[in-house]
Specification:
With 550 residues, the chain is α/β, with parallel strands linked by helices. The chain is built from 15 helices and 26 strands. The structure holds zinc ion (ZN) (2 copies).
Length: 550
């Protein structure tokens, strides 16, 4: 028997984190995350791993281990559980955040959620599993030590090494050092997200200090936008507001929901019983006694922050004297949207602070010096970088080699890493894939649909509508030309007339048989129209002939 480790996502992209450990007798998954779409995935809400590959292991799949409550680690759990009813192990906050996601899919109360501690030891199938605490931009994070007949494996999850952790619990470097001394580690799977950053990441406590300064000096209201999962930072905002005599209005469904979950679990405490201010009362207090905590730090067009900046939010409209703080990173792909919201905040009269000009955000991922500490502490036989695009994985692999770990192996999604008595061999590829989720559809939007969407977004759409008599087959109405995203219909009359004539000519020149065969006549209309628009506009709109029999 041997242990097969198969990354189902997260090795070659940011997000989609999910890794299978299968020793032939039992199997477990670490994380089941989603990925947010890039610019080419038009209209896609998010991407999840294709768990079809697990069917082979279904009988022995014994559980899912969650490292922390970020969407890129728990966002695909609801989809996974629909096909595989397995127990889900996680710390209380991780499971609390997951429960809200499961409820949206009607799976709360059905899913088997197993709470674990941050330094716990339990069994999942044949695996001996030990959790250890890690610091990250969300509380209650863990990594895992997995023991089985073929070795000892360490999975860091997402981590940083914070010298001043907000909850007082540091990343378990001491525990890992003892492990390395007692039971040599076969392989270390380590977070590569910030391998391009030199030095050390700043402690989360810095943000609290930067916020203090803002809260002390801001003349009017302070509006802080951030990710609603960053519970420690929400706590810092509440504490700071309390210190400077402000009450805090929470805005955004996930902000309100996550604060409720965190209070319930006990990983957040209200500094004063009346610190929270109902948002509809925010206008009743003097501005210097008000803070607003909201989502929308990525410039999402319908988010509360965007609406506030545009003066379209029901309760909070940004005005002269307000200070807005964007306390999160600029996620690649969102820069334009974030710049828009910053511009609109300035235009509305606010002073705006963001990552580039102030320490109102620090990263939750380890920089190079911290990554080195992890590698030197664990001293694994094999080093496998995870959580990153290829350039991150390769750079992280090089870093490990520089530190004397000669067996640093770069793997991509789907590559089978087979460990047998501590030795690694590469055993080909598993058929892994991704599914696009768009609204209620999972996996029904594929490459062809995306190609159409791309095409539509670039060149627009032309519909040719022709109504025919079902008896005689003569034209009753049309051809009528309807365009979207091609030309404005006013002022393009001669072009549209030309298009109409082109379609009519196809009809007139068609044989009586062809006129009865709608498929054939549609193909002819499509070809002629394509030629027409290419010649007149050098564009290739999507052409849709519609033939109606009346
Ligand atoms: Zn994370
Ligand atoms: Zn992550």
């Amino acid at each position: 028997m041997s242990l097969r480790v198969i990354p189902l996502g997260g090795l070659g992209e940011i997000g989609l984190n999910s890794m299978l450990f299968d020793d032939g007798e039992s199997a477990l998954l670490v994380d089941a995350g989603l990925m947010f779409p890039d610019d080419t995935m038009l209209g896609i809400d998010f991407v999840i791993p294709d768990y079809g590959v697990l069917r082979e292991t279904a009988g022995r799949l014994a559980g899912l281990l969650l490292t922390h409550g970020h969407e890129d680690h728990i966002g695909a759990v609801s989809f996974l559980l629909k096909d595989f009813d397995i127990p889900v192990h996680g710390t209380p906050l991780t499971l609390g955040l997951l429960r809200r996601r499961l409820a949206e899919h009607g799976l709360d109360g059905v899913a088997r959620l197993v709470p674990i501690g941050r330094a716990d030891r339990f069994r999942v199938g044949a695996f001996d599993v030990e959790s250890f605490p890690v610091c990250h931009s969300i509380p209650d994070g863990v990594g895992y030590i997995l023991r089985c007949a073929d070795g000892v494996f360490v999975h860091t999850g997402d981590f940083k090494i914070d010298e001043r952790p907000p909850d007082g619990v540091p990343t378990a470097i001491g525990r890992l050092a003892r492990l390395a001394a007692e039971e040599p580690v076969t392989a270390l799977f380590s977070d590569s997200t910030n391998v391009e950053r030199e030095g050390y990441s700043l402690p989360e406590a810095f943000v609290g200090e930067a916020l203090s300064e803002v809260f002390e000096t801001a003349p009017g209201r302070v509006v802080v936008a951030m990710f609603s999962s960053n519970i420690h930072r929400i706590q810092a905002v509440l504490d700071t507001a309390a210190r400077y005599g402000r009450r805090v209005a929470l805005v955004g469904r996930s902000m309100v929901g996550n604060v409720a979950t965190a209070l319930e679990i006990g990983c957040m405490k209200l500094p004063k019983p009346d610190i929270l201010l109902p948002v509809e009362e925010a206008e009743k207090l003097p501005p210097a006694q008000v803070a607003v905590l909201t989502t929308g730090s990525q410039g999402e067009p319908l988010s509360a922050l965007t609406l506030m900046a545009l003066g379209e939010h029901k309760y909070i409209k940004i005005r002269e004297g307000d200070t807005a703080v964007l306390s999160s990173k600029f996620i690649p792909g969102n820069e334009r949207a974030i710049a828009n919201v910053i511009n609109n905040l300035f235009l509305a009269g606010a002073d705006v602070l963001y990552e580039k000009i102030s320490e109102v955000h620090v990263s939750g991922h380890a920089s190079r010096e911290e990554l080195k500490v992890m590698i030197r502490t664990v001293r694994p036989r094999y080093f496998i970088p995870i959580h990153g695009e290829m350039r991150h994985l390769i750079r992280h692999g090089k870093l490990a080699r520089e530190l004397g770990v000669s067996r640093a192996e770069i793997a991509a999604d789907g590559e089978i890493l087979e460990f047998s008595r501590g030795e690694l061999t590469r055993a080909g590829n598993a058929p892994v894939g991704r599914l696009f989720v768009d609204g209620k559809g999972v996996g029904d939007v594929e490459g062809l649909v995306l190609k159409d969407r791309y095409h539509l977004s670039q060149d627009g759409l032309v519909m040719v509508v022709l109504a025919l008599s079902s008896g005689s087959g003569e034209i009753l109405y049309g051809p009528d030309i309807v365009t979207r995203g091609v030309v404005t219909e006013n002022g393009s009359e001669s072009l549209l007339e030309g298009a109409r004539e082109t379609a009519l000519k196809v009809w007139e020149e068609a044989s009586p048989e062809a006129r009865k065969d709608h498929a054939e006549i549609k193909t002819d209309i499509r070809k002629a129209m394509r030629r027409f628009f290419n010649k007149r506009l050098e564009r290739k709109p999507v052409i849709i002939p519609v033939l109606l029999e009346l």
